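Bit of a strange request maybe. I'm writing a small parser for structure token strings and I need a real example to test against, not something I typed by hand. Could someone generate the tokens for this chain?
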Amino acid sequence: MAQPTPLAKGDNDPVYAVHHGETITSWVVSHLFATYFPGEAAVAQDRANYRFINGFVDVGDLPCRKAFWATMVGREIAPDVTWEPSHLNLPGANRRVEFTNFWHVPTHVRRWLRGGFRVDADRCLSLRVKTCGGVRIFVNGVEQVRFEPFRRNVESVTDVSLQLVAGDNDILIHTEDLAERDTFWFVELEVTDPQPITVVLPVALDGAELARLEALVRGVRPSRDVFVRQPLELLFDAAPEIDLAVAVEVFSHGHDRAILLSQTVVLKAGATRLVIPETQELPDGYHGVRLRLGEGAGTVSRTIDAAFMSDLALPPGAATLQQRKREALIYSARFGAPRIGRVLAMAASGEIDQTILRQLVDDTLDSIDWRKDCSDFIIVPLLWLLADFAEILPDDLRLRVQQSVLSYRYWVDEPGNDTMWFWSENHVLCFHTSQLLAGQLLPDSIFSASKRTGRQQAALAVERLNKWFDSVEAHGLAEWNSAAYYPIDFIGLLAVEQFAPEALAKRARYQLDLIFRMIALHTLAGVPAGSQGRAYDKELRAGPLTELAPFAWVAFGKGWLNGGVASLPMLCASSYTPPADLEALAHIVPGRCIEARYAQGLESGKLVVFKTEASQLSTVVDHKTGTRGHQQHVLDIRLAGHPMARLWINNPGEDDPWGHQRPSYWAGNGILPRVAQHCDVALMIFDSSKSRSPLTHAYLGRDGLDEIVLEENWLFARSAGGFAGLYNSHGLEMMETGAMTGREVRSNAPISGWVAVVGTGDQADFAAFMDRLRATPIRFDAQNLSLHVSPPHGADLQLHYDGRFFIGQQEQAFVHEQPVPMLTFDSATAHGDGVGPIFQRAQIQ
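Reply from user aminoacidic:
Good idea to test on real output. This should exercise your parser:
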């Protein structure tokens, strides 16, 4: 990505030359101005109608947006330069000036940007403005651009011209949006003028100081994938010339975004490493790290992530399911995240701290009363608490809980002016489940939003839940294998299994059994992994720290407990038991290998997983190829030697390696590829020529890899007895600087073929594995978009972008389109199509 070029000026002004096709990202940024903006309460529409997809649903304008259109669009805005600066936005990983974030209630958000354009003579500057939100541009105090599309989370584009006068022109930008939960909010100013523009930052810093800050913030990264009883250590590509203050704020990625640590430290002159000793005592988790470098108007900011664990050793679980449930309840009661699930764990385990209980219930009721987005995730365990453990609540708190339950909004046909999301499969399930439980608990009371009795609410919920089960039983889950959303699905399913009428409870048990089967198939050495229908960076890079990981520990006896309590206490307080045959799928015995196939979701995510005791390869094949992705995690490799040993391939959906777009840099794909998998080998064809980032890359969980061998087209990796080989038709380059140093292997070709292979064995077998792959001819036809792999021993594999996949001369149709996984190869029983794995060691049975 082209970066603006710093200019060497005699007066040392911080200036940049921005050329045609580059973007202007050098600005002084104001603090956030945020105002609650609900609009008038009204009912909404159910446009999903139990047909769940991956991606945004057009839900129409909510009351807040209708009010925004009516009162805010086109209003007069006077240029304001009286605000105090928050930080500098400098050229770096992002071509945008971006403020994407999550707001739980409808909020009008605004910021000002200030900079300067220097020209030798009067001129007209041509720009292309891209935004989510609305933009006003003032030149020397006069508004010259007003672009206010305000399309929720949809980029809008317009071409504009600015009239500049000779000398320095004061540029002021007002950017705003209406935040409705997850909000993409950015401004991108691309220079379309053939003549460069000189950008001046109006700060009391010289250009050299600013360049050093820019270099520091651009490449900052954790030194490790996971810190094990170690303090956080940050690495920089550059060093400051003088001591530099660094404010560090570590926060939870949970819905509460709890601040775990706030500390100011000093990066010493000449240092490229910074250790924050106080972080050694942080709770286990994959946490956000917010950094502010510098002071006053010369402050730059950056938010990254880091993982913290107290132990990497795989802890043995107790012998029985009931014992593990008990241990997990005690752990959650003592160390759980500050959510209502911790209170449920306290109640079920008997380890009750009334001070913590009251605080967590107060916080829960605040979210429910404000109807914050995702409050449907916490009202269900609150209702479970009320149903089974009401006696632990003081009388005043129990009365408040009942009042909050009665005033909640349970579906779109009840009026509201919130931004709660009613249209994805996990939210639909939780809303219907909460409506059922609340109605059953308070059958004769009147619910204020709907004006119905509890008995009426429960009857409606039964009808709606049956529609939800009709959909997922027919099509499977759009959010397949999701480490983020399976724990949310469990909220609804476990409560329905525990409290619903038997006909519904039976359907919930069937779905729970199916989800645990999918988890077992995709769990290796205690860490659930694999292709996912919806993935986030905070799960992909978290390994055993995901909220899903403890479910594997409870269900299958190996794994890690952590602070996630969205639904784990519900599993442990329930009578539900996963099927007995799943442990053998979760923990493959040495010498065995299996392949399973099935389909999930209305849009038919066709899934394949292959695993041995030490390696696992998982893909979704034939899924919306060539279209813009959302959060689909297409190919995933997990190796058993280390909980962070993981690799995957994607086309980045945004610029910033630490960004949170959907798709993001690592989670999802800008353009979805064509994929095929046969047992231990997967083929991928990417045409990312129309993507925002026309390249592809692979992520390496470096801490977990004992060996990495990079050659021109191949990358080989080993973690204990698990092997991976990644091939790209146009060559591979390891990133040696920047945020992903040593963890990103890139192919800069917009159109290319990838091959991914896994293997199992000892160190000598790894050498043989690499030799077999090196000896395998691979041909990629970029014009006809076809990929051919010719193993030394075995039939050729051929993938075509139109979807045809051949083994030898035989076309391989994907015929396993049922939601229930089927073993299509099992070396222990010689079950399968007779072809079997291609690159595995000879010892595989």
